[in-house]
Design brief:
The protein has 308 residues and is mainly alpha-helical. 52% of the residues lie in helices and 3% in strands. It has 16 helices and 3 strands. It has a 3-stranded antiparallel beta sheet, with no helix packed on it. A hairpin with an 8-residue loop joins β2 and β3. The longest helix is centred in the N-terminal third of the chain and has 20 residues, at 67-86. It is globular and about 75 Å long.
Length: 308
């Protein structure tokens, strides 16, 4: 009879797999999630897993975690069982039962960003070590992990670019350095032996801002705001300054416009320019068009091009 492997045995094999370790998504967070799953399922035989057990686990996690977090954990669990088939520890039948469990529908429509005044208030409220990190986020749109892992060799101050090769979507990204960020980076003390940009007094890179960032938000009177929302702020401020969606997409490192289009509604001037094309087709001057369009937008009425 086949050996009844336990979940812990599968997890240990998974963590030791060189192909798994080579995955872009294999990081400390992924390893931590595996440990969480080991604490939950432990010595439960793999042959005993079924759709009901995984569904119950999903329901339990939704009581304490957000949908996105639960989905990442479920996706990891499914991948572990898929690899388990390759290890000859899990049967195809059991794997099919596990992968039947559907992911949770996520609400990704949340868009929280700061005004220019709030940005200044937040920066002023930051502790000295946090201030350059926040300034970098506001002026580049980089993710927290990209910022904390940034090395001096990636910051090309001479040519004015930050070069990111290890990104979330696996593609190389070049981010321009503006004057604000250049001044911030140039003011930070570092020598030839310095490796990481944002380090503590011992020269080690910061691992988290989970304490200092909420404290700065509280001091600045900013509520319901996460560090990732600095990325939203970067994109929103650009769009509201009439920077094209395509350019914002490239700066954020999105593979398609789908994710970037969530910011499109912040650029009402583009809608005005669009309807002005009809004015030109009908021989209406720009001056009349400006006045008529503004009145139409203010009054909320539908006005024909001819009537303007």
């Amino acid at each position: 009879p086949a050996k009844r492997y336990t979940f812990n045995e599968l997890a240990n094999e998974y963590l030791a797999d060189g192909d798994v370790q080579a995955l872009k998504s294999f990081n400390k967070e992924r390893r931590y999630r595996v440990k969480q799953l080991m604490a939950k399922f432990g010595n439960l035989p793999l042959a005993d897993f079924n759709t009901k057990i995984v569904k119950r686990f999903k329901t339990e996690r939704l009581k304490v975690n957000k949908a996105a977090t639960v989905n990442r954990t479920l996706a990891l669990l499914k991948h572990m069982f898929k690899e388990g088939v390759e290890y000859e520890m899990v049967s195809e039948e059991v794997f099919n039962k596990v992968r039947k469990v559907k992911l949770v529908k996520e609400n990704n429509r949340r868009l929280r960003y700061l005004s220019q005044e709030e940005c200044k208030e937040l920066i002023d409220a930051c502790r000295p070590h946090l201030k350059p990190i926040v300034i970098t986020a506001l002026n580049t749109g980089m993710r927290l992990g990209e910022i904390l892992n940034l090395k001096w060799e990636q910051a090309d101050l001479k040519h004015g670019f930050i070069l990111l090769s290890d990104t979330k979507n696996g593609e190389r990204r070049e981010i321009p350095i503006n004057y604000t960020l250049r001044a911030t980076l140039e003011a930070m003390p570092h020598g030839p032996e310095s490796l990481y940009v944002f380090t503590n007094k011992d020269g080690n890179p910061f691992k988290s801002v989970s304490t200092s960032f909420p404290a700065a938000c509280y001091k600045a009177g900013i509520k319901d705001f996460r560090f990732h929302d600095l990325r939203h702020t970067f994109a929103s401020q650009l769009v509201m300054s009439d920077v094209s969606i395509q350019k914002v997409m490239k700066l954020l490192g999105h593979k398609s416009l789908t994710m970037t289009l969530r910011y499109a509604h912040l650029a009402p001037s583009h809608l005005v320019e669009a309807v002005r094309i009809l004015d030109k087709n009908n021989g209406v001057s720009d001056t009349v068009s400006d006045t008529g369009t503004e009145m139409a937008l203010l009054e909320g009425n539908t006005v024909s091009c001819k009537s303007l």
